[in-house]
Amino acid sequence: MKKMLDLLGKKALLLLIILAIGISCTDDLDVTPEDDDDFTAEKFYENPQAYRMFLAKLYLGLAKAGNGEGDGGEDLAGIRNDFSPYLRAFYTLQQLPTDESVIAWQDGNLPSMNTHTWTSNNEFIYVMYSRTFYQISLANEFLRQSTPEKIGSRNVDPAILSDMPSYRAEARFLRALSLYHAMDLFGKVPIVTENDPVGFFYPQQREKLEVFNYIKDELIAIDADLKESRTNEYGRVDKIAAKMLLAKLYLNAEVYIGQDKYAEAATALEPVLNSSYQIANVPYKYLFMADNDVNGAQNEFIFPVRFDGQYTTSGGTNYLVHASILSSMNASDFGVDGGWKGLRARRELVNKFADVTGASDNRAMFHTTGQSLDIASIADETQGYGVTKWTNKKSDGSNGSNPSGAFVDTDFPLFRLGDAYLMYAELAARGHGSLSQAVTYVNALRTRANAGTVGQADLTLDFILAERSRELYWECHRRQDLIRFGKFTGGSYLWQWKGNSANGAPISDHLKLFPIPDRAKAANPTLVQNTGY
To answer: For 42-306+411-523, CATH number?
Structure first.
C-alpha cells in the first residue's frame, strides 16, 4: 500500500484500530484516555510492532479524525467529526481569515472565520486548540512508554529497538510542531511534557518567550537522533524537517517574542537549502496531485502529511479537493465523486497573478466559468473563482486509489523546499543573505511556473509577500505571512470582507491571535483570555 501508512502496513493499522489505542478527548489540556489503561496496558506491548504502530498514530493525528473508518472513531468529542481533523482545522484558521480563501458554508460559527468576527465560543477555533494539545498528549505518552526501562521489559522488534532513538526524536519533533502551532495561533499556552502527571491537572500558561525557547531547545536537542536528509521513510521527519521548523520559529520571532532573530533564521535555513531535497523538476500542478508521492514532487517535500484514498479516508486534502469543487465544475475532472461547493478564491489572490509582467503563470489555477470575481455574498458559491490546485487525479490522468472517488490520495506538503527558497529571499531582503542568490532561488520557482524572471531590484518585501502567495496559496501559510509582514491587521492592506466589510475594513491588532476557547477555560480555570476577547 502507499501513503502515510506505509509506515506500518495495512495489517498493523488494523491491529492499531482493533487494540483501540484511540483516546477520546477530555477537556483537560493533557488529554488522557478515558480508561487509564488504554496506553499503559502491557497487552498492547506484547506485539513486537507496538511502538511502530504508536508512532504511526502520532503521524496519523495530523491527517485523520480518529482510528475508525472514514471519520469514525474520532479523537475529539463535541463537534461533527468531519470538521475535526487537525489539518482541516489548521486550514480554517490559517487560510479563511486571509486574502486567499473564503467558504460559503453556514455551519455554526464557521462564517465568522471569513470576516474576523469570531468569538471565544467558536467551535472551529476550539477544535484547533484541542487538536494541538491532543497531539502533544500522544507524543508525551509515547515518550513515557519508550524509556529504556520500559523497552527493556518488553518484546520489541529488533529493528524497531535499534531505531528507537529516531522514534523518540520524531515524537519530540511532532510535539514541538503542535506546540509551535499553538503558540502561533493562541500566544501564551501551557507546556505539557512526559514528566507531567497523567490525568487531571491544570497546566499553567507560559509566557511566549518560555514557549519559544522550549520549542527552540527541543529542535536543537533532537538533531543528533534524527535521521540524515532523506534517509528516513517518506512521510517521517528527518534532520532537515527540524531545521525547517527551527528556521520558521526564528523567522517569526519578532511576532512571537518581539526579538529580531533573522540572522538565526538564516543559519537554521542553510542546511535545508544545502540538503538533498530538490525543487521538483515537474510541472507545478504535479505537487498537488494524487501521485505526488511518486511523480517527482516528493523530491521537494520536506515533511508531507500523507493521505490514502483507501486507508486515511478523511482529513485535510480530502476536504481541499471536494470543498473546492463548485456547481459550475465537474467533479470527475478532479477524480472524485462530487463537489462540496464551499471554498473559493478571493479576488485579491486572483489579482496577484495579474500584477507581475511576464509569461502566463501556470500557478494561477482558477476556474472562472460561471463564477464572478467579486464576492458580494460569501454564502453564494457562484461568487469568487474556483481553485483547481488540489486534485485526486494522477499525473498520467488516472484517478486515485479509492474506487468510488469518495476519498483522495493527495499528500499535503506541510514543509517543502519551495517555501525555503522564498524564506531565503525574504531574509536576504531583510539584510540576512545574498540578493543575488535570492534572485536565483525565486527565479527557479518562477521558471518552473512559466512566470518570467525577475531581478534584484524586484525583491522588495512587498514583492516577496505577493510571491509567497503566488507559490504557496492554500498551503496554510498566509495568515502567518500577513502578520509577519504587518499586513494582517490595521488598514494598510485591505481585501474583500476583511473586517466584515464588502470592500475591506481595518481590523484590530488583537485579532493576530485567536481567543482561548471558552470550553478550554471552563476546563482549566487558570487559563487567562487573550487581550481583546
So the answer is: 1.25.40.390
